[in-house]
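SAMPLE LOG
Freezer: B-3
Tube label: C17
Construct: single chain, 397 aa
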Amino acid sequence: MLCNKSPWPKHEGGPIAMHAMISGLVQAGHTVKVLAANTNKYNVDPKCIPSEFQNKTQIEFVDIDLSLSIYGAAYNFLVAKSYHISRFYTKAFVQKITETLQKDTYDIIQLETLQMAVYLDVIRKNSKSPVVLRAHNIEHKIWQRITENCPNPLKRLYLNHLYKTLKRFEIGVLNKIDGIIAITPVDARNFDRLSHSTNIISIPFGINLETLPEDSVQPDEASLFHIGTMNWFPNEESIKWLINEVWPMVLQRLPNLELHLAGRYMPGWLQKLSVPNIIVDGEVPDVWEYMQRFSIMVVPLFSGSGIRIKIVEAMAAGKAIITTAIGAEGINYENGQHLLIAKDARSFTDAIVKLCNDKTLRENLGKNARMLIAKDHDNNKLMQKLTGFYTELLKKN
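STRUCTURE (predicted):
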């Protein structure tokens, strides 16, 4: 497995999803080797990784500097290449891939995220094994939505370049690899439309349910929270919208209600925020423990694709959730039974007020959400499905 960031520690959605699959494959009896980018944006000390995880993954790292460069951005603009992708290419990673593939033979080579596909040609030169892309998102869809929502015409011009070059690279990769693991059925259908591949499967983010407490804490009083990595643009965009468009209406109807915001990489404007009843908690040491303090999770996403890991985790924790149709993509939910869907500021406000005033509804949504996760996101069952997919893929090759 080639990872665009370390699968440990589990501080963000991507690492959480990678860690779950790696652990699930190992638990199912497979041997897994991990090569991971160690970037300045998600930097880890290899010495701090638990020995058990090191032993079962044989994990090795290559340092990559993802700092934005005016020269790099300008060069990629002029040559019409994706700056999102080119930043991940280094000679050191090429050397590490070459050494690894010349030393051992693998049944499957799995690329975690589109960024790792920048090394596809290197892999092909050194291995005849099938190469599979596990796509956490449809990357160009995220940037298409961001571009469309950008009000600044000059910024939108450059965002449009980023979107188009990323789309061209992504579609090119889809037609070069041997298989695609989509994280949602919606993404799988889109990949089927965008590529010629017949080897496409949808496998969502999995949770080891046996590690979760049987019952989660449900506070008597209604309380709101949001948790997410804030250097991901769709998250920052959604919180700005929540604060500016929704929160004033909420306070008019529920003047004592509090909203807590947690997550890594809180931007400066949010750290300095001075808005009534909004508390910025920043990065928290234990996500599960943090969620137990609150009863309602709000996720007002309007861009992005794939599946929201934090929503799945909150559902497993039995929390009532208010989100958008985009936020709930990839989850086999029924609106009003497993969570509440809102489409604009007014309906989001109404949903918040409704849940705050109805404890029974909060509890029912939480119980139904947890049962849904147990049915659809059991990691052991998902790894059996993945093993079956790989077995069939190897027969074709």
